[in-house]
Design brief:
Layout lengths: L1 H7 L2 H10 L15 E2 L2 H10 L5 E3 H4 L4 E2 L21 E3 H15 L3 E7 L4 H10 L20 E8 L28 H16 L2 E3 L6 E4 L7 E2 L3 H5 L3
Parallel strand pairs: 1-9, 3-5
Antiparallel strand pairs: 2-4, 5-6, 6-8, 7-8
The structure holds zinc ion (ZN).
Length: 237
Amino acid sequence: MKSATLLLCPIWLILLSASCSPVNQKKGENPYNLDLVQTKEVYSALVAQNPNNRMVDLEKAIPGITLDIRYATVNNFTGKVIYTEPKAFARKPVADALKKVQDSLATHHLALKIYDAYRPYAASLTFYKVYPDTSFVADPKKGSRHNRGCAIDLTLIELQSGKEIPMPSTFDDFTARAHPDYPNLPDTVLANRKFLFGIMEHFGFKHILSEWWHFDYNGWSGYKLMDLPFEDLKRDI
Ligand SMILES: [Zn+2]
């Protein structure tokens, strides 16, 4: 049966499906013995203890939000599909704060575009294997604030057209242009970056020292690192 299926499947289709399938991440890998949430049972118990631990689907919390989840496509620095699907989750207070950002942006005829939100720890391990430079990729010995559901990668778009407004670089540009203080930019770009930092800070986020698109939610250290796949979170345990 198997060989018959293979004969019917052209070689280009086999190659295409291999390159477009998510990278085979070994769920449960914890080489640095981190305090990781790896089961639905532990996650459910944490949510029962404190509802702020809930991972919220940003498309449900912020209707109409634009997602461009690059790690669910080959259009990212690894050149590989990392996520099984283009989903964005964040802890409840983070999602609530992003909703306030989105509402406030609307008064400026702008909106958010999300590149990445919660990232399972297994994906962080994969990133480090592909790009072992902790200036841009989180050190797997510590885990990422994305693994805690408390970091968001984003930019701003025009509310009507959905067009990105000019920023210093593209997402995951690992050059000096990504630095939040990079100076050699047109005035409009400098103003856009300053506006983005201002509005995010107003609603409880901080930008970091290496990437203009990355924001940590204040209080991130109170949330555990997680390695649950999106499939488990979608069911709203
Ligand atoms: Zn980030």
